[in-house]
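## retry 2 of 3
previous attempt timed out at serialization; input unchanged, resubmitting
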Amino acid sequence: MFKKILIANRGEIALRIHRACKEMEIQTVAVYSTADTDAMYVRLADESVCIGPAPSKESYLNIPAILSAATISGADAIHPGVGFLAENAQFAQMVEEHGFVFVGPSPQHIRDMGDKIRAKELAEECGLPIVPGSKGAIESIDDAHAVASTIGYPVLIKASGGGGGKGMKIARSQDELADAYSLARAEAKANFGNDQVYMERYLSKPRHIEVQIIADHFGNVVHLGERDCSIQRRHQKVWEEAPSPALSLEERAKIGEVAADAIRKMGYRSVGTIEFLYENGEFFFIEMNTRLQVEHPITEMITGIDLVEEQIRVANGMPLSFKQEDVKFLGHAIECRINAEHHHTFIPSPGQITNYHAPGGLGVRVDSAMYSGYKVPPYYDSLVAKLIVHAKDRRECLFRLKRALEEYVVGGIETTLPLHRQLVTNEDIINGQYDIHWLEKALEKLIDS
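## retry succeeded, writing output
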């Protein structure tokens, strides 16, 4: 087993990886920017190395600095966490070329799945159902009109080289297509340096369903069920559940088997997530994330499997410690993403935590690097905590979540905790009647309530 792992990330995910390493008796190396000197994960790591000033491009995206930190600390492997360089194929390749193990999939799989057009082609080859759309990039407005006339309006134009809602535009009619096409290309170029776009049929009321898989070097592939991530704002997840309240047992088993079979055909290794849109009983592949997901804890809660530990074991060349038939799904879990933002305007709210109290009790987990006195920096993603609750069924889970949200105290900054307190008592949420457009439509009512 590895003796020392460098964690190439920050915040709650760096702390999460550190904890898994310590339980496996692996030493940790934290890297940090000057803005994160007092971060909890830096304090707890066995070693820490400052890799640059606050801006991400000079620190957490600084590949030479990270590799240098791994060299001087004598690390065996580098875990990229989520975000930053986690899905950067060049980084994964350079890690391996410098003699370290990359805790993740092969650079080629990252490269293939990072190109949304190539990912769609591979998914179709491996038997995954895809949304009707263009076979490749849309090279001109004439091509766009031709594809749209075939698949029908409304259509969604998407950047091939990115995600997170950037470079994504809807055209509801032929009159809107030219502007949507131009805007999507311009936004894709600005955000990803690549103006290539493709087109899909726009689904009006889909749910976002993703399947967690893990595969080793020996061809063993296991799925760990699905997560429902449909509560979103501007394509950013806000609230996640496992299992989905929308799927039947038969649908759950079927999509899990389909996802695992596709991963087996790809020859993939490590953890990964295949994401689908689900509407009217049909699943459509949208993308694959070749890394640990922010919302992985809810899968851990209903399966009892430590995904980070298994990810590290696989990277070390070990087989999975369990088989598909060993996986048992117990109860229901919900995760609320707590951001340092105003709960209705969503304006970022960095600053010092004046008082902090995390909820506890049976079935309550908080993944956070916050503490009283900690200063939330203004330079990075606003996610500061994840509240995860598990219970024997969804009804009990919602009651437990309501109680935990009432206990949670974060003083000194604005957070999205008030929004989650509204969501947990909303009738649509309680009944599981929502889709990926629900929150944006409901926000106006929630603000007035």
